[in-house]
Specification:
By secondary structure, this protein is an alpha+beta fold. It folds into two domains: 4-68 and 165-330, Aminopeptidase (3-Layer(aba) Sandwich); 70-150, Peptidase M42, domain 2 (Elongation Factor Tu (Ef-tu), domain 3, Beta Barrel). It contains nine helices and 18 strands. It has helices at residues 4-12, 21-31, 92-95, 135-141, 167-181, 204-213, 256-269, 285-289, 316-330, and strands at 37-40, 46-50, 59-65, 70-76, 82-87, 99-102, 107-112, 126-129, 147-150, 155-156, 161-164, 190-196, 217-225, 243-249, 252-253, 273-277, 296-304, 312-315. Strands 1, 2, 3, 12, 13, 14, 15, 16 and 17 form a nine-stranded mixed sheet that branches. Helix 1 (4-12) packs across helix 5 and helix 5 (167-181) crosses helix 9 (316-330). It starts with a helix and ends in a 9-residue tail after the last helix. It binds zinc ion (ZN). Zinc ion is lined by residues 65, 168-169, 199, 222-223.
């Protein structure tokens, strides 16, 4: 990989949806030397503009989200246990017995009121135990409205696979950073690398970022669920089979010109790729698509096993192929495709 140390570092930063500041500050420090223009907006998006060299060039917006799923404390019981609610989509079975960490470093374990088998996916059946002996001690460490998220090490599995928390979507942030670094600055297109907030709460950051940029093309750079393990064998997404080119998900139908250009660029440049279709979930492509008078939209997706868990699994080669595709797409002349 180009800079696996950076990917690892990004996955380990605390940044539950709505509270992405530490992630943003880390990224800002890295990208600033490569930006022609850079700004943070009112909701916390970090937008990096690298100017193109052609008057007929198009505006391409890449969006990767900085936030990770987590939980918010909604009540503190007198026995010291914390009642929680979702910040993004969580699976109770994945959270159960797992460790979580608050921004102030307080660590807790997720437990269940009663048997986990009877909890379904009801997050209100879960609690966080920070070890406090009573409510008074708990309130000294945690307030109502504080958030916690998964934590744990970045690990290597067999077959060159990576296992970590928060690969969704720090790997997209990593891809944007690496592609920005490799943008020579005289490409036909104006490129906007957008590190956006609150995707997990409904693609909120990308919506306002797109309104500021008014892109010709918007590309979500994110993960997508795998279908190559027993959790779901009905689709075709395979880890290690190349970068996913989004065709469709329940929130967006990718633009056929965009997907056609991506497939051609992969074929021409020997970039491994796969067509990506999912029937659950969505990405920032949906909000960019419906911005202003409409935006041609696509997605560059890394196929991921165990998504929205503390143990997501991806292929480093798929991640790198995604950067290669971004580079080729950024350099493509769209003047014959978009009048
Ligand atoms: Zn995501």
């Amino acid at each position: 990989m180009r800079d696996e140390g950076l990917l690892e570092k990004l996955t380990q930063i605390w940044g539950v949806s709505g509270y992405e500041k530490a992630v943003r500050e880390e990224i800002r420090g890295i990208v600033e030397p490569f930006a022609d223009e850079l700004w943070e907006d009112a909701v916390g998006n970090l937008i990096v503009h690298r100017k193109g060299g052609s008057p007929s060039g198009k505006k391409i917006m890449y969006a990767a989200h900085m936030d990770q799923i987590g939980f918010m404390v909604k009540n503190i019981e007198d026995n010291g246990l914390l009642r929680i609610c979702n910040m993004g989509w969580n699976w109770a079975g994945s959270a159960y017995n797992e460790k979580v960490i608050f921004r102030n470093g307080t660590i807790g374990v997720v437990g269940c009121y009663g048997p986990i088998e009877e909890a379904g996916n009801k997050i209100e059946k879960l609690f966080v135990d920070i070890g406090a002996k009573d409510g008074e001690e708990a309130r000294r460490l945690v307030k109502i409205g504080d958030c916690c998220g998964y934590f744990g090490p970045y690990l290597h599995l067999a077959g060159g696979l990576i296992c970590s928390k928060s690969l969704d979507d720090r790997l997209g942030c990593y891809q944007l950073i690496e592609s920005l670094k490799e943008n020579p600055g005289n490409l036909p297109n104006d490129i906007y690398y957008c590190f956006v907030v609150q995707e997990e709460l409904g693609c909120r950051g990308s919506k306002v970022a797109a309104q500021q940029i008014c892109p010709d093309i918007g590309i979500a750079v994110d993960i997508t669920p795998a279908h190559d393990y027993p959790n779901d064998l009905t689709g075709s997404n395979r880890v290690g089979a190349g970068i996913g080119i989004k065709i469709c998900d329940p929130s967006v139908v990718a633009d056929e010109m965009v997907t056609g250009v991506m497939e051609k660029l992969c074929a021409d440049n020997g970039i491994p790729c796969q067509r990506e279709v999912i029937d659950r979930g969505g990405t920032d492509a949906s909000s960019m698509n419906l911005t202003g008078a409409g935006v041609r939209t696509g997605g560059i997706c890394v196929v991921t096993r165990y998504p929205h868990s503390q143990s997501s699994v991806v292929s480093g080669e798929d991640i790198e192929a995604g950067i290669d595709l971004m580079n080729a797409f950024s350099a493509y002349d769209f003047s014959a495709d978009i009048q």
